[in-house]
Amino acid sequence: MDYYIYIIIAIIISIILCLIRPIRKDLDPSEKSIITGSIGWCLVIYGLMAGFSINIFYNRYLEIRNTFITEITNLQLTYRYFKTLPNSENVILSIKNYLKSIFTDLLPNLKNKKYSEKSEQLYRDMDNEIIKYLNSNPNIFVNNILIRMGTDQKIKRLVDEINDGEYYINILIFLFIIILIPLWLSSVIDKYIQFIIDACILIILISALYICIILNNVFDDSPISIKMQGYQDLLDEMEDNEKFEK
């Protein structure tokens, strides 16, 4: 879902409401107190919801980033270890196939909040090749090789959690629109003060919503997006070694 469209629509609606504010009738003191209280309660609920969502999304962002860092580190160690072993071509080829699928299949799917079945299968093929090689060579030192297995399932689980995060954002968007209604009804005599109040509230609302959106879309292009440079570096290393051997 393109949340940025909703943010733009909300901004347009808020501007329109502010522009047509002078055409509505003046409110009596009791109505103004009700409107003021409504804005306060809406902002409190929105703030709690936004803070809760940001905390969840940020912790998940760190978990996703650390999972990828762990996986690429283990892949590097596994590749460099098997590179020194005889008859390990199938293992190295399976690692290379999985790395290629990261950019051709996994990453495009992650941007759409989906997990790649093709990459998952290539990951399993890589694990099977490692197990097959170790079973055929029982004298090989295997400590820390099998430990790296299973990161594909963790990534899959985290992708499912990203999809769950859309519900939080939808609720925030709904609250955002609800806040615009009492905000439009409120007014002060000085138009400049009114503009400053409106601008400050909208900036706070939009900033919190934007932070939630980028934290829930960590594979899109953004200042905090998850980088896959480590995978590309390992793939380049493997291709350079192949050229050197030829």
From TrEMBL:
Entries under InterPro entries matching the protein: DUF4239
Alphabetic keyword roster: Membrane, Transmembrane, Transmembrane helix
A Pfam family hit: Bestrophin-like
Residue stretches in coiled coil: none
Transmembrane segments: 5-23, 35-58, 167-186, 192-219
Protein name stated in the entry: DUF4239 domain-containing protein
Species this chain originates from: viral metagenome
Lineage: unclassified sequences, metagenomes, organismal metagenomes
